[in-house]
């Protein structure tokens, strides 16, 4: 029977191509707009490291101004650490894995005369950065504890920089001049683009990963510049680079890997004891307010999915509702034109249930076609987003199987819901009155 209803639906489409086309277009426009915004929001809020996101925690301690909370919010600790706190917490080694980190930059001077010097971004981190965040390697690997302790001039290159400077060859063991210093290449990353870039959402949650990775203490050794957000609640005591490092200015992030809830509780106790010890030294004038947020909690806390993106999603749903209201009007017009046919079918024995099933299948077919057309429009919308925001959103602005299935289900449900009232009206047409008029 279902196949028969499908055949009747296609015959109906052929008899009313303009009305059918308008209904399909209305649904497609609503689905296209809503799926574009749903996809972006879905991928922006996706878990970037699901295999261990519940074990990775961002460390916050409230070292801020006693008179004004961070961002003027009384109960919110700063989203970054001072150099003093980052190095003290790393020295304690109280977590299974831990890494303080910061963003910087320098000029690379390639050995080849065919490549001009260029500026590159740097991620300063500790050896645990790579296993903590499951960073893939194409050649070599990260550095060891000795390199951290001895402040060795070693570097891990991104795949893009290795392609540019070494033509994509295995460059492990080669030297590269950065910031006027000769660094030994010990590793090259494979393609890696966590979205969002959860390990440093303060400096661009959807920015590309850094070009270079090197030991954290080279920040002090080479006096590397500050990149990204730097905030101070009081002026450093003195001038120069050392004064900044010893100040209450925040420019550093820290993550720890804690395997169990008991490990988290123990680390929080350690943080509280650390802050209390610092209070005795005259620091941390605010009440005790430390936080350990896992990956998803941290992204939610930092509003990685912007409010305007969510507003756009709800506006697109409202547009879908408007499109469905138009579809209801078109369905009513179509079924009104078929009142004679409906009356005849009722007169020869078709039940209301038969008619309801027939026209529900017909509206479902319209919805399915609208969903397919809507997917094309959504893809065009996502291509437009990629063109607007650049290559970093290539993975973000794309439809996966989940989104394709959602689009088709949404279009089917929406069209069937839009067709309920017109179908009910059609099923209640009095056959006698229609037969008299024929």
Rg, Å, rounded: 31 Å
Counting helices, strands and paired strands, the structural category is alpha+beta
How would you describe the shape? elongated
Q: Output the number of helix runs.
A: 15
Tell me the series of helices and strands, N- to C-terminal: HHEHEEHEHEHEEEHHEHEHHHHHH
Range of helix content: 40-55%
The spatial strand order of the largest sheet comes to 2-3-8-5-7-6
Which keywords apply here?
single chain, about 450 residues, alpha+beta, six-stranded mixed β-barrel, 15 helices, 10 strands, about 15% strand, elongated
Any overview of this molecule?
It is a single chain. The protein is of the alpha+beta class and 438 residues long. The chain contains 15 helices and 10 strands. A 6-stranded mixed β-barrel has the order 2-3-8-5-7-6. Helix 1 crosses helix 13 (352-389).
Strand-helix topology:
Blueprint: H1 2-15, H2 17-44, E1 56-60, H3 83-92, E2 97-109, E3 118-125, H4 129-132, E4 137-140, H5 145-150, E5 154-157, H6 159-166, E6 175-178, E7 181-189, E8 212-215, H7 218-221, H8 241-245, E9 253-257, H9 261-280, E10 291-294, H10 295-301, H11 307-337, H12 339-347, H13 352-389, H14 401-427, H15 431-437
Parallel strand pairs: 3-8, 5-7
Antiparallel strand pairs: 1-9, 1-10, 2-3, 2-6, 2-9, 4-7, 5-8, 6-7
Helix pairs in contact: 1-2, 1-13, 2-11, 2-13, 2-14, 11-14, 12-15, 13-14
């Amino acid at each position: 029977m279902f196949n028969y209803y499908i055949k009747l639906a296609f015959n109906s489409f052929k008899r009313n191509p303009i009305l059918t086309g308008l209904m399909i277009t209305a649904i497609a426009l609503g689905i296209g707009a809503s799926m574009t915004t749903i996809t972006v929001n879905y991928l922006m809020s996706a878990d970037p490291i699901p295999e261990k996101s519940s074990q990775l925690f961002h460390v916050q301690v409230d070292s801020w101004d006693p008179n004004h909370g961070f961002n003027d919010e009384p109960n919110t600790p700063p989203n970054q650490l001072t150099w003093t706190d980052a190095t003290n917490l790393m020295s304690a080694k109280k977590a299974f894995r831990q890494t303080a980190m910061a963003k910087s930059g320098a000029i690379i001077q390639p050995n080849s005369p065919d490549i001009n010097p260029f500026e590159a971004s740097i991620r300063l981190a500790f050896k645990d950065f790579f296993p903590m965040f499951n960073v893939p390697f194409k050649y070599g690997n990260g550095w060891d504890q000795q390199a951290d302790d001895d402040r060795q001039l070693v570097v891990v290159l991104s795949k893009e920089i290795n392609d540019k400077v070494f033509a994509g060859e295995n460059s492990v063991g080669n030297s590269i001049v950065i910031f006027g210093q000769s660094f030994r290449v010990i590793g090259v990353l494979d393609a890696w683009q966590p979205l969002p870039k959860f390990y440093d959402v303060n400096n661009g949650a959807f920015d590309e990963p850094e070009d270079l990775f090197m030991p954290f203490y080279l920040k002090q050794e080479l006096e590397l510049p500050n990149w990204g957000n730097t905030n101070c609640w009081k002026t450093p005591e003195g001038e120069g680079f050392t004064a900044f490092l010893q100040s209450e200015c925040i420019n550093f992030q820290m993550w720890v890997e804690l395997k169990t809830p008991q490990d988290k509780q123990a680390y929080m106790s350690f943080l509280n004891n650390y802050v209390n010890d610092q209070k005795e030294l005259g620091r941390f004038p605010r009440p005790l307010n430390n936080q350990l947020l896992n990956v998803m909690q941290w992204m939610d806390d930092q509003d990685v999915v912007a409010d305007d993106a969510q507003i756009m999603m709800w506006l697109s749903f409202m547009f879908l509702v408007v499109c469905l209201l138009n579809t209801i009007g078109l369905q009513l017009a179509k079924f009104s034109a078929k009142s004679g046919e409906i009356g005849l079918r009722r007169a020869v024995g078709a039940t209301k249930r038969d008619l309801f099933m027939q026209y529900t299948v017909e509206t479902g077919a319209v919805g399915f076609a609208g969903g397919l057309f809507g997917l094309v429009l959504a893809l065009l919308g996502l291509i437009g987003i990629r063109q607007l925001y650049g290559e970093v959103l290539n993975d973000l602005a794309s439809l996966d199987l989940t989104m394709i299935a959602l689009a088709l289900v949404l279009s089917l449900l929406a069209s069937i819901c839009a067709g309920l009232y017109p179908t009910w009206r059609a099923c209640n047409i009095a056959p006698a009155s229609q037969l008299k008029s024929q």
